[in-house]
Specification:
The structure holds 2 protein chains of 2 kinds. Chain A is an alpha/beta fold. Chain A has 17 helices and 8 strands. Chain B has a single domain, classed as 3-Layer(aba) Sandwich (Rossmann fold), CATH 3.40.50.620.
Chain lengths: 375, 259
């Protein structure tokens, strides 16, 4: 079956809402509407596959959400990438990320033996060897290895402990969730990762999984087919814990904080309130909103493999537009709830020279301050 | 055109603190991931490109156990026409000569215009199998090959020399070339691609099938002892948090006039 039939592309009436909403259309030749037309009109996808901008797409899925015909243009791009993957003709950066994930279980090629190093001095139950638990904390690749993010994982463990939750981790057995792997077109590798992690979930005997990253959460909730297992992003868990009074952020944080909605948390999974609830639960904190927030949130360009592939886009990065807007509205802090967003926005603060005016923090870091925890 | 490409599966050791096992004769490889030797991936890609360019039959060969078949599967997924694994319990801890000997015994009876190997293996790094194999087969060879063109029964190759120099050689076929990394850009081999060749036959040959006596593959080099080099002077291991380390590195750079 051709892509036209498989993705129902004959239903497309070329209205252009996909391209109109695409966060990349400002800086990349990527034009989703044209792409769909080309896929339909050409005998095969061969011509479209020559387009290097196929790798610019962050799979934020804005096009899919906006399509009035209910089509899934972002999935068509993933399918096109899958054809490239099968032919082997993919950028070196993508090859490196995929091979590293196959060999080491993470796209950065860091050693599996070091996957649990984020714990530092912390003692966390490793499941199932270390006993049983109700919750599995799925740390994710970036927070496991990136020294900027490792403390965030430790804070979440501290908070869960304070709330009296029974939880554990998979330690060095945890493998990449595969969310970006599938979106780079490597369906086979995604299936292998899914099988590995599902086996880990099953063996751990937990009733729920909580993730640091919205990307892992998205894969587990929508692409893992986990029956009888509750999957939460950590902001959803924290909002519950605050509502139940199981954690009480008491220390005042007199800061103007603007919240950046990660695409895989907000747009794609509809989690808009939980992160805001957590921020509103911090006394003294003034919560600001971007002009483009919630469903309209501007993608940081970290999804769909873009953490590893630069893309052909030119001009200011979306993350740079984002931090400039935050500064203009007088925010002191951009808060977010995704490791990729955090890294990209923080880089943008540096490249725009706003380091003295603006900080980028994970919601967990703000909460830790309000709970007077050590980070 | 018949092309034979020799492959080796090696442990991936970047970022790992290697340890010598109690026998003192081997590095502990338990728990390490294994991959196709990086240089061999360029040799394999080159073989497949020759096939695509001018038509050729590509045979992939490895010496090793069942787990080493994964490099042959990769070769088949990429386009190799057949795969052969040489395996024999009497081939314990073979040296470069023993490997070259069994390969020569196999390849002498296979049609071969071109034999491609990686320059060296990432684990022991001897770079000897290629040249030894060529000698045993009595065919010419060139090492460190960075480009390869074929025409009229001859190969025109570029070799990498010291100090950025290169030499160009014209070599009569059949010949063996050890392929340097960077000669091409190895393509990606997908998991589905590997799954597709999961059932393809891999021929397994032992010493008898090759017509070799165990005597004939006795290693000429015996490893006495493996050990970590003694800690020398002048090196400073910087420890501490990211910021401390970065500060100390910046200080050293500044003092040394680097920045």
């Amino acid at each position: 079956m051709g892509l036209g039939e498989r993705y129902d592309l004959y239903a497309c009436f070329q209205c252009g809402k996909c391209t109109g909403g695409c966060p990349l259309s400002l800086r990349s030749p990527l034009n989703v509407r044209v792409l769909l037309r080309e896929v339909l009109l050409a005998e095969g996808p061969e011509g479209v596959l020559q387009r290097p901008e196929l790798w610019d797409c962050t799979t934020c899925a804005t096009c899919t959400l906006r399509c009035p015909r209910g089509l899934e243009p972002s999935e068509v791009i993933v399918a096109l990438r899958a054809e490239l993957v099968e032919s082997g003709r993919i950028p070196k950066a993508v090859i490196d990320a995929l091979e590293a994930t196959y060999v080491h279980g993470n796209p950065w090629g860091r050693a599996r033996q070091k996957r649990a190093d984020w714990m530092g001095e912390l003692r966390v139950k490793v499941l199932p060897e270390g006993g049983r638990a109700e919750w599995l904390y799925f740390v994710g690749c970036a927070p496991s290895y990136d020294p900027r993010l490792q403390p965030i994982a430790r804070v979440l463990c501290g908070v869960m402990e304070q709330a009296g939750l029974d939880f554990g981790v998979l330690g060095t057995k945890e493998s990449c969730c595969g969310n970006e792997i599938r979106r780079m077109g490597e369906e086979g590798l995604f299936e292998e990762l899914r099988q590995q992690n599902k086996e880990g979930f099953r063996a751990s005997g937990v009733r729920g999984v909580v993730t640091t990253s919205p990307h892992c959460m998205n894969a587990f909730r929508r692409e893992y087919e986990l029956e009888g297992l509750r999957v939460l992003h950590y902001t959803e868990l924290l909002a519950e814990l605050i509502a139940q009074g199981r954690i009480s952020p008491r220390r005042e944080l007199r800061q103007r904080v603007v919240y950046h909605d990660p695409c895989f948390l907000g747009k794609q999974n509809g989690v808009f309130e939980a992160p805001r609830d957590v921020l509103r639960g911090i006394p003294g904190l003034e919560l600001l909103e971007f002009s483009r927030s919630r469903e309209l949130s501007l993608c940081c360009e970290g999804g769909g493999g873009r953490m590893w592939v630069e893309g052909v886009g030119q001009g200011p990065r979306n993350s740079e537009l984002r931090v400039r807007e935050a500064e203009a509205m007088g925010a002191e802090v951009i808060a977010t709830a995704c490791p990729f967003c955090l890294l990209n926005l923080e880089d943008a603060v540096k490249t725009t020279g706003l380091e003295d005016k603006l900080q980028v923090k994970d919601i967990l870091e703000l909460l830790a301050e309000a709970l007077q925890m050590e980070v | 055109m018949d092309v034979v490409v020799c492959l080796k599966r090696v442990p991936e050791v970047a970022e790992v603190d290697l340890q010598v096992d109690p026998t003192g004769k081997r590095v502990k490889t338990e728990g390490l991931p294994f991959v196709l030797n990086d240089w061999d991936s360029y040799a394999l890609e080159e073989a497949v490109r020759i096939k695509e360019r001018m038509g050729a039959k590509v045979t992939a060969v490895t010496v090793g156990g069942e787990e080493d078949e994964e490099v042959l599967r990769r070769a088949l997924a990429l386009g190799a026409d057949q795969a052969i694994r040489i395996s024999d319990p009497r081939l314990q801890a073979p040296d470069a000569f023993a490997i070259a000997r069994v390969l020569a015994q196999l390849i002498k009876d296979l049609p071969h215009d071109l034999i491609l190997v990686g320059v060296q293996a990432a684990d022991d790094g001897y770079a000897q199998v290629g040249p030894t194999l060529a000698e045993l087969l009595g065919i010419p060879h060139a090492t460190l090959v960075t480009s390869l063109e074929l025409e009229g029964g001859k190969a025109r190759v570029r070799r990498e020399l010291e100090a950025g120099l290169e030499e160009v050689l014209e070599v009569e076929l059949p010949a063996l070339f050890s392929i340097q990394s960077g000669i091409n850009e190895p393509r990606y081999v997908s998991i589905l691609g590997i799954r597709r060749v999961a059932k393809k036959e891999i021929k397994i040959l032992g010493l008898e099938a090759l017509g070799l006596e165990p005597e004939g593959v006795r290693p000429k080099v015996l490893l006495e002892r493996l050990f970590s080099p003694p800690v020398g002077e002048g090196a400073e291991i910087i420890t501490g948090g990211v910021e401390e380390v970065a500060e100390r590195v910046a200080e050293i750079f500044e003092r040394g006039g680097v920045i």
